């Protein structure tokens, strides 16, 4: 399975099909312009589903979404092949677009960036009022959803605060100061805090201090710090379950 040109794109398995980003043939160095559907053998099905400046994809339940300059491409189960529809940005939104998407866990929604100091909650199941814009006190650094407490997500902003976002009400429920300010000025790859949720604990990296900030997810109170070597930057929470085999 091969696309027409090298690209900053994506390939996502959806059931027995694969959704492939379509490169910009006229300007190969720019972002993809749409999505193609391929079957198990790699043969294309139908034409290109337009998604200019495609950047960002996520799944929530059985719904897959791609972020475009014009809105979202929403993918659901169809009659034998994936059903794809365009969900345009609401006219009430300011100029901007989503380039990072995260899918909700437990509740079906998407959380995306929108401008430097906002995030947007997206309900992919509706046509009107699908987008709820939430303003932040300062520019956004990182955001994640809570895989355990489905109604919450978390946004870290450059003033050193972690914000608990109520995705049902569409508002910031609580805020907690954790670090010194981290400016978003400068290169995108400079070490800045990242957030991860591990069970009942929220962990925020503080690279300039060389520590992990620990927060209780139930009370949303800081519970301690964990010193680490170097400058902790990206963080991922992993887990698993084992099986006990009893011998005779």
Features:
four-stranded antiparallel β-sheet
Q: Which helices and strands appear, and what pairs or packs with what?
A:
Layout: E1 11-14, E2 17-22, E3 34-38, E4 44-50, E5 57-60, E6 63-67, E7 71-76, E8 83-88, E9 101-103, E10 110-113, E11 118-122, E12 131-135, E13 140-145, E14 152-157, E15 161-166, E16 171-177, E17 195-198, E18 201-206, E19 211-216, E20 221-227
Antiparallel strand pairs: 1-2, 2-3, 3-4, 5-6, 6-7, 7-8, 9-10, 10-11, 11-12, 13-14, 14-15, 15-16, 17-18, 18-19, 19-20
Structural write-up:
The strands form 5 sheets. A 4-stranded antiparallel beta sheet has the order 1-2-3-4, with no helix packed on it. The model has no long low-confidence stretch (mean pLDDT 92). The termini are far apart. The chain is built from no helices and 20 strands. By secondary structure, the protein is an all-beta fold. It has strands at residues 11-14, 17-22, 34-38, 44-50, 57-60, 63-67, 71-76, 83-88, 101-103, 110-113, 118-122, 131-135, 140-145, 152-157, 161-166, 171-177, 195-198, 201-206, 211-216, 221-227.
> Overall 3D geometry?
globular
Number of helices: 0
Provide the helix percentage.
Answer: under 10%
Radius of gyration: 20 Å
N-to-C span: 50 Å
The protein's oligomeric status is: single chain
Secondary structure category: mainly beta
Q: What's the average pLDDT?
A: 92
One letter per element, helices H and strands E, the order comes to EEEEEEEEEEEEEEEEEEEE
Poorly predicted regions are none
Q: Write down how many β-strands occur, each being a DSSP E stretch of 2 or more residues.
A: 20
Strand order of the largest sheet: 1-2-3-4
What proportion of the residues form beta strands (DSSP E)?
A: 35-45%
Largest sheet: 4 strands, antiparallel
